[in-house]
Amino acid sequence: MSTQWGQDPYGPSSERYDPYGSSASADPYGSAEQHEAADPYGTADPYASAGQHGAADPHGAPQLGAGVQDPYASLPSGVPQGYYAAPGYAVAAPPSSGLGIAGFVVGLLGLTLCGTLVSPVGLVLSILGMRETSPTATPPKGGRGLTITGLILSIIGTVALLLIIAYFVVMFVIAGVAASSGY
Predict the structure, then answer these.
(1) Contact at 8 Å (CB) between 120 and 166?
(2) Which listed site, 36, 55, 93, 106, has its alpha carbon 20 to 30 Å from 155?
(3) How far is 34 from 39, CA to CA, in rounded Å?
(4) How far apart are CA 84 and CA 92, in angstroms?
(5) Is the pLDDT of residue 179 over 70?
(6) pTM score, whole prediction
């Protein structure tokens, strides 16, 4: 028996055996009218403009201005009154201080790679960054933690540099005294 392209090799589909024993017209999930007749949850459209509770919020939360005071009005922040973040969201942080970040990077490089030679530069940058990130600075900038870390690293590097310089000065003085005394 040869089959041609496009023909079913097992014969016409009406002759096939249905292992589940259902007819082609029966709907195993019921009719569409049964599903459309009743809403199983008994709720209206949650996106409607005014729900049955009188609030525009589908969760029934009262709206600001309808006898509800702003809970964030007394908080000190850089956000104008009337604007606050929704629960679960934070207000945008102020931009970080570029001088504070530079002081941190230079202080870290001074301790790790440059042999404390650039630590005084990191100290100056960190002090300027501390002024930028102070609570009384206008406009307020973030990155105070990085600035403090850069200040500490730069202080450690500068002290180490001063100790190295003092060591060499003492060694040159001792060598000069030894050379002039004839030892």
Answers:
(1) no
(2) 93
(3) 10
(4) 10
(5) yes
(6) 0.51
Q: Is 172 exposed, middle or buried (0-12, 13-18, 19+ CB in 10 A)?
A: exposed
Residue range 21-45: mean pLDDT, rounded:
59
What integer pLDDT is reported at residue 163 of this predicted model?
A: 95
Residue 153 CB neighbour total at 10 angstroms:
24
Distance between CA atoms of residues 99 and 116, nearest Å: 19
Residues constituting the chain: 183
pLDDT greater than 90 at residue 101: yes
Whether the bond between 139 and the residue before it is cis, its omega within 30 degrees of 0, is yes
User: For tokens 């259902």, what's the residue?
Assistant: 22
At 36 the pLDDT is 59
Q: What is the DSSP string of 56-103?
A: SSTT-PPPTTSS---TTTTS--SSPTT--PPTT-PPPPPPBPHHHHHH
Q: Flag the least confident range among 18-22, 93-97, 117-121.
A: 18-22
Question: Quick check: 66 and 88 in contact, CB under 8 A?
Answer: no
Q: What DSSP state is assigned to residue 2? A: -
61 DSSP assignment: P
How is residue 158 written in tokens? 């500068």
